[in-house]
Amino acid sequence: MTAAFAWGGPAGRGLIRARPDDFEVTEVLGHEPSGDGEHLWLWIEKREQNTVDVASMLARAAGVHPRAVSFAGLKDRNAVTRQYFSLHLAGTTTPDWSGWELPGVRILGGERSARKIQRGRLRGNRFRLMIRELDADPDVLEARLRCLRDHGAPNGFGEQRFGGNNIARARALFAGELKRKPSRHKRGFYLSAARSLLFNQVLERRIADGSWNRIRSGDVAMLDGSHAFFVPDPDDPEIDARCHALDLHPTGPLAGAGESPVRAAVAELEQAVFDAEAGLVRGLEQFRLRHERRALRMRIGALEWDRPEPNSLELAFTLGQGSYATSALRELIVHDLPTQSRLGPTHR
């Protein structure tokens, strides 16, 4: 994660994930099952289970190959989360899933669809977080909440992306120093961690120079709520207003092969980060990842808050695909984990 803060630093300290119910995530897929077809969509609530393990459970229960089970995105393990899974059941009747007994899993509903769920194809997630043992100045906390609601937060990759030693393993992978060839799944984590580190370092520089939330000359802009980006016309008088309104965001690099579309001082800033981490950049290119862009800022949608007790804070908000709740939260408080949750990284 980045070390810099956009809005002056945390307003206090609090405890998150004291129990699973304190961290709830509900997937916003953005589309619904069609009602008939060879895929069964199941609306799942899981507790203290990671998404991949739940997919394996569903495959065993339905008697299908694990590759027949699809989902849009990984969700936190140490939480209560709700998301769709699809099972490819061509030529078979719908199984009686009401009798399946899966640990930590409740099936809330099911419906047939003509299409399977595509990985990465979701609009975002709705979060509900309870922060306990809160120690913060009430006025500063209120001001920071309003700032996040109205102006968003830096869109950094959260600590979950790095998994403790994924960066070290990425460096070893690129240098040919791993004793064992990693599985495709693990290799993907290492590549993603390397990309995320480079992006976060660019974001940190943009926070430091005050441009993380505005379009600079040479920037590439991304439309809010999409992955579509474009080079803005420097003479367009509406660009600054659209950026201020969170309709557009400046972008940072997801490193890989191919020419970067940024120019001028923005290109110099990103190249300086790449030069300092040349080994990671070369490794990503060797593994044939393509240069892509990611918004430097996240919109925190429909942010609501309540103080059920003097030392607690309840938050509810929506984030777009790929944005991290912990990255938004770090602008608000220093968030501690209960002792038992400090034993290792969580799976997002």
Brief descriptors of the model:
globular, disordered C terminus, Pseudouridine synthase, 4-stranded antiparallel beta sheet, 348 residues, 3 domains, single chain, alpha+beta
Structure explained in plain terms:
- With 348 residues, the chain is α+β, with helices and mostly antiparallel strands.
- It folds into 3 domains: 7-22 and 127-152 and 300-341, Pseudouridine synthase (2-Layer Sandwich); 31-121, 2-Layer Sandwich (Pseudouridine synthase), CATH 3.30.2350; 153-298, Pseudouridine synthase, CATH 3.30.2340.
- Helices cover 27% and strands 26% of the residues.
- It is built from 8 helices and 16 strands.
- The protein has helices at residues 51-62, 138-151, 166-174, 184-208, 239-244, 264-276, 278-286, 325-329; strands at residues 12-15, 23-28, 39-47, 69-71, 80-88, 105-113, 124-136, 153-154, 221-223, 229-230, 248-254, 292-295, 297-298, 301-306, 313-320, 334-336.
- Strands 1, 2, 3, 4, 5, 6, 7, 14, 15 and 16 form a 10-stranded mixed β-sheet that branches.
- A hairpin with a 5-residue loop joins strand 9 (221-223) and strand 10.
- Helix 3 (166-174) packs across helix 4, helix 3 crosses helix 7 (278-286) and helix 4 packs across helix 6.
- The two termini are 15 Å apart.
- Mean pLDDT is 93; it is low at 340-348.
